Amino acid sequence: MQNQKNTSQKPQSGSEKSSSGKKASMKSSQLMQLFEDGLKDIYWAENALLKAIPKMIKNATSEDLNQALASHLDETKEQIARLEQVFGLINVKAEGKKCDAMDGLIKEGIEIMESSEEGSMRDAGIISAAQKIEHYEIATYGTLRQFAETMNLTEVEKLLATTLQEEKEADLKLSEVAMDAINVDAAEETA
Ligand SMILES: [Fe+2]
């Protein structure tokens, strides 16, 4: 809907060039703000995962699942270091801002572990929780990588793309573990 405010903000003839330049720089500073907010959100989320993944490992029975989670725990540490590099490159202090989405996903995972018997069923629950977490991270890093590309932050974009790839591979690995053993065992337990 076109309103009067919008109409009045249209550039006047003669000042069109500088006005559109101003608009572009406003847009890019807003994009930078979104980018910084997103970085702080995922920085909080990754640090929360540093505490949550060991709980998942403790609760998992399958050796494959244990290994997949343990290697993702190591990757998570590297991803945190990578985020710190990104903060450094854009001259912003590395700090987290509570991510309610990740907080909820982790709480859901803990509930699943507490409400299921140890063994294949709990393993299947852990995988489902871990994959929801991965999908959230893939969405977040995908967006941040795109923002970095739009702002021509080449180094930053590379770092985020590396993490995005790791998250995708972790998700695939979890799918493999689920298909290989756990879902079959879980089905047998309920039979
Ligand atoms: Fe991650």
TrEMBL record:
Please list the residue ranges that the record marks as compositionally biased, kind Low complexity.
8-27
Record's Pfam families?
DUF892
Among InterPro entries, the record links this protein to:
DUF892_YciF-like, Ferritin-like, Ferritin-like_SF, YciF
| Region span, Disordered | 1-27
Q: Which PANTHER family does the entry mention? A: PROTEIN YCIF
Put simply, this protein is called Ferritin-like domain-containing protein
